[in-house]
Write a structure and sequence with these properties.
The complex is a heterodimer of chains A (300) and B (320). Chain A is an all-alpha fold and 300 residues long. Chain A is built from 15 helices and no strands. The longest helix of chain A is centred in the N-terminal third of the chain and has 42 residues.
Chain lengths: 300, 320
């Protein structure tokens, strides 16, 4: 009887605890989603409804005014193109450099393993800093070029270490022995066996690189002067910080006429337009996510 | 003479062995060559350039041609009237961020892991990653939009709950900068930072939970005595890493959230370096010295955290 009572009481307290957890989870869902839904709803509302604060959750007086202004803005189009270019090529360069370093370091018998690993790890904890890097880049004549946006930061050490750990943990050494007997070279083994077996980690690291390039603000801010080279984030900041829209950038006369009332709503639309590509990307990579990260970040 | 010969031959043999290894691994070396060159130029190059912190750098004279001035720039920074403010702002912001931003993802992971509703668990997890993909620029404008007293969520809720007119606009106040900075960071990173703990929690052996259940431990007790100890090594390693980057308050967010009004709390070392070293004053040597000062403080914090953890865990957990 007493044991039964005890068990019941315990179950009760566990139920209460679980209810608390449910509340926490739901609360966090709301905290994360509400601002996002609110921004999207504002972007689809009329300029008037947004400026006067009528939007609570769903679009009020639905319209596409904001998007019309965004899509008729010349600088935004150009910046979008630039960002697309930087993201595609920058992330491919970054992925290539990362795996070329990660693979040799994952081979236990590699004679340069110790020294190269030390060289890599040091840079995780100490670096020259902003200004010596700037001085170097300008001496190399790379300031204000597309090249520097593509290559600066291409070798990210934590990505490299995640990839190396993945190679070490998930590709059996026996496979190497067997392949060696068949007379395969290190290059061949890497290309034909290691890479196809490492899709999850490659997908995840590629996602990291893409997100980093798409969202980059600091590097272009420091190294670019030429407006034609500006990525989206720089232009975005300028427009979002301004209180009016630069009329010379708008090509469409009809839109120009009603522009004053649309400053606010245009900003919401711009935020959505700048963020949606990353959101679309995420579900595609998500299936690799658990595998790639978990094997890559846990030792043993 | 004889011993000399012997030493010599050992040396020669070593070199030969080394060459043999390199010859055997030449393909691996070739692969690593591109990243290695990259590393030397873009990571070690700036370290070489750091000497301008001890020189009076002028672009015309170049790095090695400029005159040595010793610790002049460090003295200038340490005796600057702004030094105390900038340093304290950085320190307070980092500590606040560490105190809030470090434990919350752990609690979040533990809570979600214990949740019985597996569907809700999965949905919450997936949704909580979303903010990570938002850029800092967009993030900062979302903060300002949402907190707008006129047409933001903040103003709307104020009126919804019976307020009239517009509430006080606290976005630009210097007193609110730190709270906005830290709590919006939680919003952005909570889910993402918890991934690694979720991964570590998946390695908790189910038998342990079964055994604890039979002993009558409640779910909460099992979190404390089963789940938490399992992920403790992961927590320790991430704590050390976090301490190493503590003073390196992200430039982007602080810079983007800055306004002339909140400068008294929002000016941190990285924004100070940017403004004094590049933007308006272009004093490269001074900026480098302040940057170096920052890196050294970081390094000391990292090593201290590492040593403390090592001692506390009897050498089980250590980064270096």
């Amino acid at each position: 009887m007493r044991a039964y009572k005890n068990k019941k009481r315990k179950n009760n307290s566990d139920d209460i605890f679980n209810a608390v957890l449910v509340v926490i989870a739901v609360l966090w869902l709301i905290i994360v989603l509400y601002p996002l839904i609110y921004i999207v709803s504002c972007s689809f509302s009329s300029g008037n409804a947004v400026s006067t604060g009528q939007v609570l959750l769903w679009p009020v007086d639905p319209s596409l005014e904001g998007y019309k202004v965004v899509f008729s803005h010349k600088a935004i189009w150009q910046a979008y193109g630039n960002t697309f270019f930087y993201t595609v090529f920058g992330s491919l360069i970054s992925l290539t450099v990362t795996m070329l370093m990660a693979y040799p370091l994952s081979r236990r018998s590699f004679s340069g393993r110790r020294i190269l690993m030390t060289l890599c790890v040091i840079t995780m904890f100490f670096g020259g800093g902003l200004i010596p890097t700037y001085v170097l880049i300008s001496q190399l004549g790379l300031t204000n070029t597309r090249t520097i946006i593509l290559i600066l930061g291409a070798l990210n050490m934590s990505n490299m270490i995640v990839m190396r750990t993945y190679f070490m943990n998930s590709i059996p050494e026996d496979l190497m022995e067997a392949a060696k007997l068949d007379g395969i070279s290190d290059f061949g083994y890497f290309l034909k066996i290691v890479l196809p077996l490492s899709k999850p980690v490659l997908a995840v690291i590629l996602l990291y690189c893409i997100v980093a390039q798409w969202n980059a603000y600091f590097v272009p801010l420091i190294y670019l002067n030429d407006r034609e080279l500006y990525p989206l984030q720089l232009v975005l900041r300028e427009i979002l910080a301004a209180t009016q829209i630069d009329a010379s950038q708008i090509s469409d006369q009809d839109i120009l006429a009603g522009i004053a009332s649309q400053v606010d709503v245009m900003k919401y639309a711009l935020v959505v337009v700048a963020t949606v590509p990353m959101m679309i990307l995420y579900p595609f990579v998500q299936k690799f996510f658990k595998k790639g990260i978990m094997i890559g970040s846990l030792k043993g | 003479m004889k011993t000399d010969n012997k030493k010599n031959s050992i040396f020669v043999r070593r070199v030969r062995a080394g060459c043999r290894h390199i010859a055997r691994d030449w393909q691996l070396w070739l692969m690593a060559l591109i990243p290695l060159i990259y590393l030397i130029i873009f990571n070690y190059g700036p370290m070489y350039g750091l000497q301008i912190a001890f020189r009076d750098y002028s672009p015309r004279a170049g790095i090695t041609g400029s005159e040595w001035v010793g610790f002049k720039w460090f003295e200038k920074f340490l005796t600057n009237v702004q030094f105390k403010d900038v340093f304290m702002n950085t320190l307070i912001l980092s500590l606040y961020n560490l105190a809030v931003g470090f434990p919350l993802p752990i609690i979040f992971a533990l809570a979600l892991n214990a949740l019985r509703q597996k569907r809700l668990q999965k949905v919450t997890q997936t949704v909580s990653y979303i903010p990570h993909f938002i850029s800092t620029t967009v993030m900062v404008s979302i903060i300002l939009m949402v907190l707008s007293p006129i047409n933001g969520i903040y103003g709307n809720l104020y009126r919804l709950f019976g307020g009239t007119g517009f509430p006080e606009d606290f976005r630009a106040l210097s007193g609110s900068f730190r709270h906005i900075y830290v709590w919006s960071d939680v919003w952005k990173h909570l889910g993402w930072d918890s991934i690694i703990y979720v991964a570590a929690l998946s390695s908790v052996p189910p038998e342990l939970h079964e055994a604890a259940k039979i002993d009558g431990a409640s779910r909460f007790k099992r979190i404390l005595h089963v789940d938490l100890p399992t992920i403790l090594p992961t927590i320790a390693i991430l704590f050390i890493l976090r301490c190493g980057s503590m003073i390196a308050v992200g430039f982007e967010k602080a810079y983007l959230l800055q306004s002339t009004v909140n400068l008294s709390t929002s000016e941190v070392i990285s924004t100070y370096v940017f403004k004094n070293g590049m933007n308006s004053f272009k004093n490269f040597s001074y900026g480098s010295a302040v940057g170096l000062f920052n890196s050294i403080v970081n390094l000391i914090l990292l090593l201290t955290a590492n040593r403390t953890t090592k001692k506390l865990t009897d050498g089980d957990v250590s980064l270096l």
